Amino acid sequence: MTQRAEQSGGSRLYAATRHINRFLDSLTDILAFVGMSALIGAIGIVVVDIIWRRIGGQSLVGAVDLTQFCVMAAASWAIPYAFSAHAHVTVDLIGKNRFRSVLKFVDALIPLLCAGLMAFLLYLSWGRAMEQLSYGDVSQNLAIPMILFWGFLLSGMAISTLVCLGQFMKLLLKDENN
Q: CB 169: neighbour CB atoms within 10 A?
């Protein structure tokens, strides 16, 4: 066994899983930062459009296309970050102290179920994206290829799936090492 694997409390697989999870956490941090920067850009475009309407009496050409593009990036790349940071909303209806053993099992399955859901949505979205690509659809004003919009969504779902699988593997291997 390597020294890192021994320090991590066990197997090489657990150490590799921790390493992959750290990489995915860093990746989701970067994507969230880029996505939120895009959202700030969308806000800036809307503000410029409003000012231009007041001053010039007409709308900014392509403002809607650019805003949609930026919002798509922000929303699609924030989803993997939410999974990575465990920032999703949870509701405690039963009482975690009384049913801790049952809820521990459910908590371990949640990343696997989320990975399955995201993989299913990725599968469905991939088909629609390929349809858009084959039709050559573009945005209304600036003729931005619609596949670029789909690229944000598909990449966000793919990374979300990997993050959830990584979290499940970490939980699974953590229980084996304890």
A: 20
